[in-house]
Amino acid sequence: MHTRPVWAEIYRSRLTANYLELRRIADAVSAQGKVALLAVVKANAYGHGMKHCAPLLVESGADWIGVTSVEEGGQARVVCPEARILVMSGVWKGEADAAIEHCLTPIVWEAFHLDMLEEAARRRGLPPRSVPVHLEIDTGMSRQGVRSGACLTETLMRFHAGSPLRLDGVATHFSAPEVLDGEDTREQTARFVAAIESVASLGLRPAWIHAGNSALVVRGEPLAPSLEVAAARLGATLMLRPGLSLYGYAPRLSEAPRLPGPEQLPLAKLSPVLAWKSRIASLRNIDIGEYAGYNSTFRANRPTRLALLPMGYADGLNRLLSNRGSALVRGHRAPVAGNISMDQTMLDVTEIPEVAIGDEVVLIGTQGEESIRAYDLADLTGTIPYEVLCNISARVPRLLLD
Ligand SMILES: *Cc1c(COP(=O)(O)O)cnc(C)c1O
Prior knowledge:
By secondary structure, the chain is of the alpha/beta class. It has helices at 12-29, 42-46, 50-60, 70-79, 96-101, 111-123, 150-156, 183-201, 214-218, 225-234, 374-381, 385-390; strands spanning 6-11, 36-40, 64-67, 85-87, 105-108, 131-138, 146-147, 165-171, 208-210, 237-240, 274-279, 282-286, 291-292, 298-299, 304-309, 326-329, 332-335, 345-348, 360-367, 370-372, 398-401.
């Protein structure tokens, strides 16, 4: 039982609505028909709680779910017994058996990934082509994936008829999909199409071709025709992999999207799925000239009323928000006063009438007319909403609401 008044509310209906909104846009961007969607639930569903979010996304129609590791994949398998689960950051030593046992589909690119999976499959006496993997192509991100060229052909040769491994998918990752009209995405797409052609020329027939995160969906532009054609020629399904947008945050695009089609799609309508809340645990008045918090970084320049929140940076509230951030109390913004401690934070509530112990406080979310989004906290701390959401720590319970 969680009794400490710090919690995150996760709204099921918003997660489902965001998924359906992305589905609607994905349908509109494909010239060839249906584009599949992989719902990314890595890092505990971006801090929202994978065990709640993954089954909802699968029920809503997600074709795949994407996790980062075999460990996360095992957790996803428990709550999504039938789903296709992609492990997006490769397999590590000692994980091949678990990957096969939980029917996970790993992304692979290093020779040792293939060696380990082959060895585990042979040890289990599995027949040829029974263990599916997706091969990532490094088209310019230089993070993971096989680089095009000789290296790629050598890797593709490993999927011969006698191998227990089957090339079920080919993927890449774009480095700057939020830049509309970006040269990077165009060049990466061209390299990806060339790699898919190498795959086809060796007679391999992967079922899935995928690339692109939230930005590629939300920009609402038609997919590269060359990519659609390359996938169609293989008889493969093209797939996009949104993450952040499922949780209600559209990536910031370099300019307003120009939307396809005669009827012009409206901008993606997404609602933040998570609200982060606490309650006032204590109140005090301090006089002009008195200080608050460690290192006396807050000095009262008027008679000041301070409210104590029983949460701090150990809950994921970035210490850089000290004297910079704010929270909502009785529909007003109350600034953070002094340095955020590990487990305590103070707010200046001088201007908020009738504040009382037990009042609900919103760190992320809406109260009355005011709202605070993960973007606001990210802007104040020099980061991105992804990090703000992932950093809400494990000791903050996630409450599932409709
Ligand atoms: C995280 C991730 C995504 C999703 O990215 P968003 O920007 O959150 O939509 C897609 N593909 C891969 C490979 C990822 O690692």
